[in-house]
């Protein structure tokens, strides 16, 4: 599985979500983006974005590290 | 209505924070300023006139709420009433335990009051409605002194299952506190609660008046220094002219509540439908039907909430936001997070008796462009 690290630490929401939305179309379907974000809104907004954009949210795999799988 | 970029006229759409003063409140306050300045607890003519005003305001408000006058106390704010309800309700049941069960979407005044105590948070679904099964389990636990449920979400507008939650509390022998600040004057509050709070400036009364109802037989103990430990009292002198104005405006507001609820609910329905249709990548949250009549919340992907507030303010629209960048704590709204909905780019629009359909139409005409401009700046 292709894994891409996207470091958005220090960025305030919605910047990490914008970075995620811009990066996702550039990775192959099935790839996993590991988004590092320390903004407190990320824990709510990453899964909400995945739901709105029909991508798979794999969870907060470590503190401040959110895994998103491109499925479409 | 076409968006022209010209300031077509301001519209205040943040009634859930503070509702413009009802004209009846203004008149009542001016009259009470002349008669209600004395300390109502003293023994002379001016004091007796003030006491008459206080007693009349208390009796009128109690009747409107369907409670006994001696169950109702005016306090210095809605937050003061919430704190008195939570802390006094917990103190009165210390022998039963010290745990507060509360919904995850309570007003922060409840959560702050709960902080020094044991507490159990009960979640909500995606629409912002209480998980009743989890609630029933939570209130049955040992050591639960009090349960707290907001009557309707102050951020999402979703009405809460107060009747069923109260039944679960009654079965468990736990008193229920209902924070009804967003419901009073708009929609009836279902019965079954033991303590109730409200806030006058949410219904068109003046700021600085809260109300607390403690039903007969409910154990309440003053959580702060007081002459009377078993009955809530305001801390310091009551703003009696404001209390009189609060009572007068509540009577006026409740008299027109059914008609206003129908009118405002239709406008909220229009906002919900139009925003979803005209703003791409938007999530309109809360229950579309079983909701407060005057309040709607939505979140726009890739939009900074603070920039959205400023963009709308420049067009003359006053609204509020649950996004982290607009909060003093820089944390996102705990209500939106508990619902599992988007927290950034969030706007809460709340209407009042002065809101016209033209206000709403102008807002709906301006919003898509304001959102698009912020997205364009972010390269989205």
Give a quick rundown of the structure:
The complex is a heterodimer of chains A (72) and B (380). Helices cover 28% and strands 31% of the residues of chain A.
Low-confidence stretches of chain A: none
Low-confidence stretches of chain B: 1-6
* Most strands sheet of chain B: 7 strands, mixed
Number of strands of chain A: 4
Helix content of chain A: 25-40%
Mind explaining what this structure looks like?
The complex is a heterodimer of chains A (72) and B (380). Chain A is α+β, with helices and mostly antiparallel strands. Chain A has two helices and four strands. Chain A has helices at residues 15-23, 42-52, and strands spanning 3-7, 32-36, 56-62, 65-69. Chain A is globular. Chain A starts with a strand and ends with a strand. The model of chain A has no long low-confidence stretch (mean pLDDT 96). Chain B has a seven-stranded mixed β-sheet, with helices on both faces. A three-stranded antiparallel β-sheet of chain B has the order 9-10-12. In chain B, strand 3, helix 4 (108-114) and strand 4 form a beta-alpha-beta unit. Chain B has helices spanning 23-35, 45-65, 78-92, 108-114, 132-139, 162-172, 240-255, 257-278, 305-314, 334-339, 357-377, and strands spanning 11-12, 72-75, 99-103, 118-122, 144-150, 176-179, 195-199, 210-214, 282-285, 295-300, 317-318, 346-350. Chain B has eleven helices and twelve strands. Chain B is of the alpha/beta class and 380 residues long. Chain B starts with 10 loop residues before the first strand and ends with a helix. The chains are: A alpha+beta (72), B alpha/beta (380). Chain A binds chain B through residues 12-15, 17-18, 21-22, 39-41, 43-45, 47-49, 51-52, and chain B through 281, 283, 299, 301-304, 323-325, 330-332, 336-337, 340-345, 378-380.
